[in-house]
Amino acid sequence: MTGRCSFHRASRVDVSAEELGRWHFRAGAIHRLIPPWETIQVVQEAAPLVDGARAEIHIHKGPLKTVLVAVHSEVDPPRQFVDTQERGPFGSWRHVHRFLPEGTDRAMLEDSIRFDPPLGAIGRLVVNPLLQRELARQFAFRHARTREDLRRHAEVAARFGARTLRFGVTGAGGLVGRQLCAFLATGGHEVVRFVRGEPRGPQERHWNPSDPEHGVETRMIEDLDVIVHLAGEPIAEGRWTAARKRIILESRTKGTAALARAISRAERKPEAFLSASAIGYYGSRGEEWMDERSAPGTGFLPDVVCAWEDATVAARDAGVRTAHLRFGVIVSAAGGALRKMLPAFRLGAGGPIGRGTQGMSWISLDDAIGAMYFISRDDTIRGAVNCVAPNALAQRGFAAVLGRVISRPSFAPLPAPIVRLLFGELGQRLLLEGAFVRPTVLTQAGFRFAHPSLEQALRLELGRLHADGID
To answer: Is the pTM of this model over 0.70?
Structure first.
């Protein structure tokens, strides 16, 4: 093997070597394996993964962009494949992926890399130690996510039966949608993405979420088993002017109504319609705990969520099992609230917002995806489902845990008057108010949270896992 420096990591996984290998050979695996704290764009995915297939990724570090093109060889499905740098920053790079049996239901996942760092001898002396630490961090994450994804698929198959389903997903280009599609694909399911532009292949279908009557053609959904509707205008991307509020409301109600009406008209209807919603339904409730039986709050956000959920009525009335996914704060270093918080916390300027006593009901990105998959298969779940972890925190508690994980102080206050001055009503409703919400439906149905504690979720998302040895 070429390369004067090396890295190796091995982890035991409680599935057969064949299933472990198949997971890696399926489309979407590269997206599940990208560390969320990195800014990486997959320009070309090596699918199908065969000898000679190329993958191209762009890695952004601040203003700098690095292009890496890898060529695959020695492909022996489902036991191994190799990728070698064709173009990129290293003097050389050769990565061997192996999936080795350890009995019938256990396997060893091995990643072995030989490389020459940039800058030759100086790189081996100075850059290599930094690369070793970063590789340990990245592969600890990769192996942890691989194990958990395989475990989720195995649990659902054991409980509800092993079936290959065809999912339709809106909002597939967003933070949650991208990872949901990759998770489903690596589990062996087929994924159809609904897009607003011109479809780029048979796995994309055009829809118009602005047209509640004719935005979705009935024929587009008649071969789908489950529809997961995640599309909607972000609510935290600018002050809430009257025009902005109208866009937020209509982006949710019109697209949802278009799907629901198409479902109601379809000759072959999907088994389930999972429509995104939010815990904004409950409004600001102080220290009171909420669950799915609680009444709605008052104000703009509860009104939006009520209208959003009501827009599914045509599908519900047509007899299709419909679930409203009331998401809390989704914890991911790749986007959303956590990514916006991190710069201030890394500078030691994070801490309580206002009084800091407002509820922060959160869920890890992987548990949000796992919950959607679980709900799609459990035909007893319908109506409102709180997609939140079982352990909500006050905002100051959330800040304290984040500060501890990244080894930074977390006591710098952001006074309420400044929040209102900077962000207006958006700041009041999203930053200064909140609710403590329980996932009663999920827990009673037997859903297993991989990250019931915030620290567990943050350590995965921020690359703060144990990074040495064999797992």
So the answer is: yes
